[in-house]
Specification:
heterodimer; A: 596 residues; B: alpha/beta; six-stranded mixed β-sheet; globular
Amino acid sequence: MIGTLLYLRLTSLRNLVIQRIRRLRQPKYLIGTAVAVGYFYFFLVRRSGAMGPSSAMAANAAAGAGSVAAAFVCSGACLVALIRIAYAWIAPAEKPGLRFSEAEIAFLFPAPITRKALIHFRLLSSQLAILFTSALIAVFFNRSSYLGGSRVIQAVGWWVILSTFDLHLNGTNLTLSRLRERSSHFRLWRLAAVAAIVLYAGAVIESAMGRVNLYLSGAGGARVEPAVFLRQLMASPAFHWLTLPLRIVLAPYFATGFREFAVAIVPALLFMALHYLWVCNTEAHFEEGSIALAEKRAAVRAAALRGEAPKIGNARPAARSGPFPLAERGPPEVAFLWKNLLSMRSSLFSRRALVVVLVLTVWAASFLGPLLSRHSRSPGGDAYGVIIVTASCFIAAYTVLLGPQVARQDLRGDLANADILKTYPLEGWRLALGEMLAPTAILTLVLWLTIAAAVTATDPAGQIEWLTPGVRLTIGLCLACAAPLLCLTQLIVPNTIMVLFPGWYQTARTRTGGIEVFGQRLIFGILQLFFALLAAVPAGGWAALFIFASHPLLGAGPSVVLGTLVVLFILGAEAAVGLWWLGERFERFDLSTESR
Amino acid sequence: MIEVEALAKQYGTFTAVRSLTFSVRPGEVLGLVGPNGAGKTSTLRCLAGIIPMSSGRVRIAGHDLSSEPVAAKRSLAFFPDEPRLFEYLTVRQHLAFVARIYGVAGHEALAAPLLEELELSEKADVLPAELSRGMKQKLVIACGLLHSPSVMFFDEPLTGLDPLGIRRMKDSIVRRARNGAAIVLSSHLLHLLEEVCTNVLILKKGEKVADGTLAEVSAQFSNGEPDVSLEEIFIRATGGSES
């Protein structure tokens, strides 16, 4: 039976590979693959190959740093794993099940196959993915240069970690299913499991904190090397025993030679075998849960293919009142703003949230300024201001560059409804503008917050002579005025890409993997960056020129206003041309041609 | 009301519709039939202004669809076979949204009887996810009818409806035609066309094979035989094969 199931898996895999290779005949996949391969080669393979230490001292330094980095990575990974396991207990699915596709359920569940064989099939399916992932990580992330060990050891180490984790999650799901079926104290069991996980995590942290504090304070003599400190930490009895299960799983990965690996792999495999026995011998009905899970995954995939926004979490959408009362008459663009704001699942942009943001902004403006001012008068105190300004600038830059990829409540979110939208009695540009108003409003709000924070935190002590409160306010208001147009021009880029290359866009937004899809997403990112610069550079350049020229005559404030007017004019012109062109293209847009 | 002259639609080198000419007057219901891939959906999508035609001329309620698309679209409604709805808008919010787009004043007063007629009143405040497929289809119909269009395009209008819904849909189409609407209806359900349509247009490989009233088309393909069904006419007209 397992042979038959293996045949199904391997044949499917072979056909998938053949199909992926065949579709490289289409330029969009070929170009995507070329870009992705180039990226992986230049940024991962070549870099990891060039990262060897050039001297013994460098090697030692790298080893020390590597030990610390590895310790951090291990701690982080263990924490994530614990959180994931705790989450499975805190919020189990209504019917916990194992992951099968709808086709697998349709063919295998009614077939004369034992329950155990189905579980084996499930484990076998995940093994193929785990083996592939382990090999990929070992190829692209070479840690031999600072931690030693070959790529084979790394790959097997990853396989042990991922397989054990997968088995553990399956075991947890089956146990949850069994408890739900047979125990009247299901909640109590869950509570006990979560408490045990939290207690365990707390005990591990507590056992380590004493030595970590000692190390950081440098007490008890000169500070030891990081690698030595880690060895000492591992040797402490409480930490040693508490982390034993985790260390058993991680040990093969950290083996620096084949002898060490051989010693480490035996307990790891035994530990994995225990998990396997747990999964195979937990008598639970997983069928209903598996069907529900498969239906949910199929629905998510179908929604992605239809062009709908991806869903997060299990919560069903709830009906809500509109963000504002929609008057019967008025510009139709406002109806799109109303609709798209309403369609946001998150309550992050609700009226209540807006009030909270406004209150916070007012609070920040009235309290943060004096606070920073006091700090800046103390020696080295303006560091807070520098941090806030730097963080604000980073957030603003990310909002402008990456925000349009995240805030998709526009034409991209309505791709599935394109046919209906096109029957509306509206010019293309008005439709495009209406659709983009919601993401523009969201991104603008974020930019306004960053501007408020940056303006407040810049030189609060008033050490820069020309930066008077009036000039500061003027700059803030001018930036705030330019923000909506800047966001709008940036949003035109991904919407235009979607309309011009719907096939590319459809492929890139589905959750199907593949190196070519990664490459396509990379191309979209590069295009966004390119057009962001193309839109901002002329506006910024001309504004700077006007400010520079008029500053001696008009003074700082008026020259900034003049520069802003130039920015508004240029960005406005860019947005108008972009909207008109996008509208024209949208009127000719036919998604159905892509599927032909 | 609907005037089509030499309509053609090409996808690259593939011609989906070629040189199609017909008209639908107020009060007429034109049944668009043809085998799979005959060009029915492409024709309907061109007529509704969803996709641009490659060549030809379409006038909707006296407005040229190419040069006056906004005015033309104000008079039409398109009902797709697959109900596409906004996921986070309730039934009532859908109607409010559409009313604003089409500038329908006092839409609540208009919506109430529509919702009643389509048995959606009790579902007015729920999201599409909570509606059955048939209910979703009804909501699409309600949205399309809200602005009282004088031209309607139905693409497989009965898909997903229950028997009572089918009966009401047929009655609704006939009633709206009697009230002066020009309707084009694409369907594979030939008995529906026999019951509802005044005229039939048979397409094959994107070309018009026959066009006229049911009696005219029947006479053209009956070879003098009495009581030949539309199904038989369809098979004879299309050669009994797919495109």
